[in-house]
Known about the structure:
alpha/beta, Rossmann fold, Dihydrodipicolinate Reductase, domain 2, 2 domains, nine-stranded mixed sheet, six-stranded parallel sheet, 11 helices
Amino acid sequence: MTTPKTPQSHTPRPKRRDFIKTAAVGAGLLILPSGTFAAPGAPSNKLNIALIGADGRARAHYDALKPENVVAICDVDEEHLDFAGEVFPKAKRYVDWRECLDHPELDAVVCCTTDQTHAFIASWALDRNLHIYCEKPLAISVEEARLVRSKYLPKKDKLATQVGMQRHAKENFNRIREMIQDGAIGDLEEVSVWGNRQLPSPGYLPAAGEPPKNLHYDLWLGPAPFHPYNPGYFEKPAGVNCLSWNMYWDFGAGQIGDMGSHTMDIAWNAIDATIPTTITGVGEAFNPEVTPVRMTSTFEHPANDWRGDITVKWFQGGDMPASPIKYVDLNEIGHGVMFRGTSGYLIGDFDTRMLYPHGTKTDMTYYKPRPESELIPPLGHFQKQWLDAAKGGDLNTACNFEYSANMIEQLLLGLVAYRHGDKIEYDGAAGKVTNDATANQFLKRPYRDGWTLEG
Ligand SMILES: NC(=O)c1ccc[n+]([C@@H]2O[C@H](COP(=O)([O-])OP(=O)(O)OC[C@H]3O[C@@H](n4cnc5c(N)ncnc54)[C@H](O)[C@@H]3O)[C@@H](O)[C@H]2O)c1
């Protein structure tokens, strides 16, 4: 059996105040920090925060943000600004996130906009040395994921980042990681992850009237190529309380960005993978306007210091891995994960897990569960982990922009292979497809003139 990994260490890192001072001196400027950076949790220790995308998912952040100084709110819908303005009455209001990010004295940003703007806002915030919590997915193209990661890594000892994969705080994530690394299924060989959500659409919606006066539709489109207004982009699909725009190529990445972000996270947390070397994506017929409902992508990952090469698979929209045993119906798990090892299977979802010993040696003597004293400690409150980090706490947040960019780059490579229609070989260091240069066109997406990732 391979050597298990211990929980991540928590090394004290420089605080933002020191970073601001250093940056200011380096630039020949005098910039005074806006927050009072005492120990995390101290009553005086408040961050000056901009909330960009102020309604919808943002409501889930209100309680965590109320104790802070929310000094700016930004939304393309003025009715949404009015709603959020009642919660944060002192905040200055913006409709354009580019102006909001230049609000004076900002320390941090919480981004809850539509997916096509995430990498833009993340990139601009990092350029301004702002801590940032960004809703999932961090990016909708491989190029975007790589750019955000490249801006984050040189600042990772100074800035707190987190992607909104808050289910990561569930204790089941830790227990699954421990079981895999302590050998519950022998040596890890393959992980299958799936999600059954289906949001089909034949294509972009037809023009349907003028946008309401409260909506800045052009700003809502943002960097995306122009598509005429249709209220359908703003209505919640039946049975799914979010993301009426997410399935269109110019606005999102379909289920890979949506439930893929959450569900792959269960596996990603356990396997210590980075960027795959080969990728396939197979599914329904390609639609140039809409991401696929049904698709399976397969990623080959090289060995690391505790395991051999592994295969990771993502199934969506009805595609499913085969059950290893006939009386376990994987279809009963809407969004789930199955690890296969040399001695068995671990099957689970966000909250549960089951072990199925299987293979030539199933006596469990190979499984060396760690003692209770070495269990991975609970993460605690997910948003608070980021807030505490921004106030000088541990910057090694669970879903920081390195962990999350790697994960979404992998998932988005599945869409690249799907669009290319063949297996791709990928150089993760260079960010290039090496076996067929024509596939590289799918690593990026088109933007409207006037919009740039470089803030
Ligand atoms: N972590 C989770 O569990 C979770 C759950 C739901 C949604 N989300 C994510 O949150 C994000 C928002 O989802 P939603 O369902 O609230 O979407 P939504 O379409 O309802 O929009 C969210 C808010 O942002 C505003 N907005 C849209 N584009 C903007 C822009 N360019 N600038 C400023 N404001 C803008 C909208 O007017 C709205 O108030 C998505 O990226 C989604 O993936 C995460």
